[in-house]
Amino acid sequence: MAEDPTFGNHVGGRSVPGAAGRRFTATDPSSGQPWGSFVDSDAHDVDAAVRAAAGAFAGAWAQLSATRRGRLLGAWGELVAANAETIARMESTQNGKLLAEMRAQARAARDWLHYYGGLADKIEGRVIPLERASVLNYTLREPLGVVGVIVPWNSPTFLTLMSCAPALAAGNTVVIKPSEVTSASAFELVRLAEEAGIPPGVLNVVTGGAAAGAALVDHPQVAKVCFTGSDAAGRAIAARAGARLASCTLELGGKSPNIVFADAPVDNAVVGILSGIFAAAGQTCIAGSRAYVHESIYGAVLDRLVQRANSIRLGHPLAADTQMGPAATTAQLRKNEAMVARALEAGGQLACGGRRAVVPGLEQGFFFEPTIVHGMAPDNPLLQEEVFGPVLAVTSFRSDDEVVALANGTRFGLAAGVWTRDFARAHTLARRLQAGTVWINTYRALAFNSPFGGQKDSGLGRVNGIEAVDQFLQTKSVWCETSDEIQDPFVMKV
User: Quick one: where's region Disordered (predicted)?
Assistant: First the structure.
């Protein structure tokens, strides 16, 4: 690949320039240097992509049987997995996350696409039993049309396919608007889809910032918007889409708690907490950014967390021995610094980290030290607001009721972890915790066939599992009178 690759939008199977000729440059966060030039799309560019998707929806894609669509999704999955290294290097270079993580996510795409490919011809209607025997009433489950998918920078391939796979299985077509931080891999995904035999126009890519995203949300031919990102942006998108009665699936932020009881498998809990917040430099919606540890083991667990955090190796995400990469952007780096400062001003105590880190050979990189803050009141901003960085808040608790109140005491409800050998307690808490996912004695586990999504300000709808397909379908009721009997229009039959 060229040192500074240049990309056009991908519309109807072709690379096309932007209508206005504006472009932007992405940055390698490890070096702070430019990497890649992309179209800064406007409403004209988005309209071209939507029209291409609408054409494919009414034409080539609609003409394929559900079984054939499903087989094409499976073939796409094989190609994505075979090209996982290329995709992963693109993403690690653009967002600073570890190559191993991005590679694993790209390889996992095969499972998602095979699963939804298998569901494509399992979408069925129903025959409704009516009292009037001469009337046949049945339902059809039909696709919505063009779906807009707006993707964040932290797990581009993974999150793109979480929306695209069920949307395509249901028979829809898609316009993808990737994050301006990580735009490159979307083009590789769509190229591979078309190589697998998915017709041009079924998947389209437009790059750019807020203007492109707004144009996609506002477009009258976009039937549904799938967005993953901040809760503030999600609210704005839901309001704009709702104004024209378009539906949304929103996977938004989190402030997820890891709860460690006195009888927990402590070794596993410590590893779970560390991986939940530091493995991806905190740049994941499900980051376990709050740890609540029972007071009887609080000091010992905190000491172990600090010791392990201080030993994490920062470095280039493409290096095999790196354990944590940089923040993806300078804005995120500044947010990490600001959130720690606010937490300390509000009474928190710094246990480790808290500053920008300098990595030899990567002095201009956006690195931040693994950070732990403790000794906070429940209203401390670090316990209430999403950081999206490697910053862990640790607090003690005494009782089940107290920790449930603390865990539920934010506006978020994406995920939670419970660490205990008492499974009666664990399953009771699973019901009491306000979270879309609860992990017991594990953390960050996801699967293609298990639904995922949030409660409260953490989102609307679900990705993964059979439920996801339902959200890309609409139901039509068909009535058919089979009798030749002439009906008197003025006589009601009930």
Answer: 1-34
Nearest CA to 222 out of 54, 52, 63 is that of 54
Q: Could you read off the pLDDT tens digit of each residue along the chain, which spans 494 residues?
A: 446 799 999 999 999 999 999 999 999 999 999 999 999 999 999 999 999 999 999 999 999 999 999 999 999 999 999 999 999 999 999 999 999 999 999 999 999 999 999 999 999 999 999 999 999 999 999 999 999 999 999 999 999 999 999 999 999 999 999 999 999 999 999 999 999 999 999 999 999 999 999 999 999 999 999 999 999 999 999 999 999 999 999 999 999 999 999 999 999 999 999 999 998 899 999 999 999 999 999 999 999 999 999 999 999 999 999 999 999 999 999 999 999 999 999 999 999 999 999 999 999 999 999 999 999 999 999 999 999 999 999 999 999 999 999 999 999 999 999 999 999 999 999 999 999 999 999 999 999 999 999 999 999 999 999 999 999 999 999 999 999 988 888 887 65
At 221, the amino acid letter reads Q
Sorted by sequence, the CB contacts under 8 Å of residue 351 that are 6+ apart come out as: 302, 305, 306, 372, 373, 374, 394
Annotation marks residue 251 as catalytic: yes
Q: What is the pTM of this model?
A: 0.95
251, 337, 385, 386: which one is catalytic? Answer: 251
Q: Which CATH number fits domain 9-252+458-477: 3.40.605.10, 3.40.50.300, 3.40.50.2000, 3.40.50.1100?
A: 3.40.605.10
